[in-house]
Structures are given as C-alpha cells and as structure tokens.
C-alpha cells in the first residue's frame, strides 16, 4: 500500500510523492455545473477542506497549467466535462487557518506578512502588469513597503483580482479557506467586533458585485450569521452538512473506506471500525466517515480503535458553552449521552453573541456544525433528529461531562468515592456521594423544574467513563424485564464483581421518604432481573444500588 500522507493538505505534494490519495476530483465537476458564482462550505475541522481547496488551486491555475496537468493523471476529473477548465484561470488562494492572533493589530501585521509572501511567490510579474491604474500601483507599493492601511487590506481581493484579470484577460477564481479561524481567535481574545468588521468588508469587496470574479469558494467550520459577515452578499450560496449537494465531497464514503481498508489489508471487524469513525449523515442520507480518524487508524492499526479526531483540538468553545446550557438543553445532552436520538431545533447561523445564552438552538447548532452531533433527518423547518455520530465522539462527551460536572470535586473526595464504589463499601460510598453532590451539583440545576434524574444518571456515567478500558459499562440498556439505568462489570471474567445502579427522583407530591424511594429503586433491580447479562458473563458478586434524591439530598439502599 502507498504511504498515507496524514496531515498533509498540499494536493501537489501528495501527488508528486505518489502518496495514497482518495480521489475527490469530481468536486471540480460538481462545482462547475452552475451552483452559483460563490459557494460557502461549512464543514467540521479536519474533514478535507484545505486539501480540496489546494486541489482547486492546482487545477485552475493558469500560470502553471502545463506543470500541474500531470497531477490529475488517472483521476476521475480527466474524463469529466469540467476537464476543459484545467489551467484556464488566475487563482487567488488564501487560507486563514494560521492567522489566529491575540489582538487585532497582531492580526493585521500577520495578514500583511502573509499577503506579501503569497503575492511574491505566486505572482512575481505583478508589478509589471500592463495598464495598472494609480490606485492599483499605490496598493502594491504600500503592500511591499509593509505600510498598507486596514482599508487597503480589506480591498485585497477586488484589487488583486482586477490586476490579474488585466494580465490574463479572464477573471480569477477566489479560494478562501477557513475564513472563520481568526473570528474564533477574536472571540477568545476579546476583539470580535473589530474582526467581524474586517471580514465583512474583506469578503464584500471580493464577492459583492465584483466583475473581477469567475467563481468563488469559501470554507470554514461555522456559518457565521449573515448580519455579521455576509450581509448583502446575495451571490453566495451555502452548502452545509444539511444539504444533499456536495455531501460526499468532504469526508469519506463507505465505498472509499472499504477500498482503503482492503488496500491496507485490514482484518479488523469493519463494523467495529464503522461504529468508531462512521456515522455522519451529511445531506440527511450520506453516511460519511471522519477522514482524519480513519486515516490515523489505518496508519496505526496495531494500536487498535481509539480517539484521534477529538484529541486534535482543545474544544475550548464547546467546553465554554456547555456549562451555560439551560435546563432543556441539559436534558437533551444527557439523552444524547445515553445514545438516544433527539428531535430539536437548531440555529443554522452562528451568532457569537448568542453562544452563551444556553439556548437549545444555539448550543445544538454549534455542536452539529462542529462535528460533535449529526442530523439524521429533517423533521420541520430548522428541526432535526440529532444523535452522537459514533463511539469516538461519545467518548469525548463522557470525558467532557466528567470534567464539567465534577468541577471542584477534588475537595469532595472523588478518589474515595470511586474507590469505595469499586471496593463495594456501601456506607462510605453513600457518604462520599453526599459530599460530591453538595459541591459539584451547583454546576447544573437539579431543582424540581429540571430533570435531575438525568443529571445523576449522566454524572455517574461520566464518572465511570475512564473505566471503559477494563469494564463493560451499560447505560439505559434493555435487560431482563425492563431498562436498567446503569450497570457495569469487569472485562476480566475471573473478577466476580459487578454493579447495578437505579435512580429515583422524589416528586413534589410524593409523601414517602427518600429511604423508601431508594428501597423501591433497589426492589426494581430485583423484580425486573436487571442482573441477567451480568450473570450470563459469570459475575456473581453483584452490588445493587438504589439511589433516591431530592435536590441535593441523596439516600442509597444496597
């Protein structure tokens, strides 16, 4: 098998080094079929956006047409009608992926350096172009003197496009990659309004009523709200993960992965591989694999199935908004954690000022477009059936839940809590659980108006997440004569221990005490034979725990 160029996003480098390449060249054919003058593709990180944009650059580039033509030898685009466009256009390709700065001034300086390097490398002839007007000459002079104003930088696409059109006699193709990367940085460092103003003016100059534009392609992770960025740009058409068009052009299809695994002589159970890395329903019906994860898995098969994609980012924005989720959003997240599907409305546009309101639509929209959820099907306008796509993302949710819900629990003795549970010391476990709840559960609303049963359930599930390597952990699973809240048992068959937990919430009009309610939960474990699976695997020393609660009051029965 050819070498996998994991992490390489330069199409030319991959092709020249004869690395393994999964053919996405028909993206060009679909792009040129008419879909509008400018197209925006929001996709999760590491789903092949930059590599596809690099491919477009080398395909259309008029300055190196002959040199680039062999790069496409043997690819599907050679036999498609769009092949007629190969090497016919000047190309402006800018990526904002690395332009993340702690201040607006820092961004302007870094962007100016980047522009000078791009223009000197790709258009060495630019100052010799015939017919330049005074404003164009002034733009170039000030640029190369590193003295450009922000207004001049904002007009880069229009000015540079006009110059290239004069030189080649045809309007250029504009490729803007990861346009929202500096917006995320600006949000983090507190200069979001200035960055939004810059990006609005920059994109408007390049795409709005620009006669120096043949076709434009923009990629990013989020679809930032029109009133913030794309105001007035009526020629931009968005194709997100909710659209059927282009749904197979980012990420890998089942057929592509099957071929990859065959070429890699992968003997692993392919259903297990799919359960870890497949599951994205782009366009409602196209099953897509996370390309970063499946390629890393194939490149490290001896290491087995593990999380790759979720470990490539700090997930700071996600971590920042989850604790602010309102009651109904928390309930939805806990249902998702139990691997259930939920029907909910989502915001298709991201308004950064709204991210910390905790609204369903905002939080779920961010999770969906960032790749942490997928939309199974559309139920109504802006309403979708959502689920966690695969085990890799599920593992991230469990860890993140543990991080958030257990904030501040070092003082509550979390180590002793887990030790007492695993050693099956009931009285100590109950005491430590009470301490835990008193400190940690101020983080989420466990009052009567919310759904605290789900909070306790998800809290315990998150607490057990790190045991996944050595224990089978089952949540809300049909077993015996019902659906057990939570049970787990060792993967080591020689260890006889096992645990079953059932949760009960005391209702406002319930006259009974918490101890009776805990005993009722315990009796449910017995009467519905929740131990069936555990006994079938040879584990006989079973700790059964009924947990009853009212707000921050907790009582256990063992």
UniProtKB/TrEMBL annotation:
One Pfam family cited in the UniProt record for this chain: AAA-ATPase_like
AAA-ATPase-like domain residues: 6-230
SUPFAM superfamilies referenced in this protein's UniProt entry, alphabetically: P-loop containing nucleoside triphosphate hydrolases (SSF52540)
PANTHER family: AAA-ATPASE-LIKE DOMAIN-CONTAINING PROTEIN (PTHR34825:SF1), CONSERVED PROTEIN, WITH A WEAK D-GALACTARATE DEHYDRATASE/ALTRONATE HYDROLASE DOMAIN (PTHR34825)
Protein name: AAA-ATPase-like domain-containing protein
Biological source species: Persicobacter diffluens
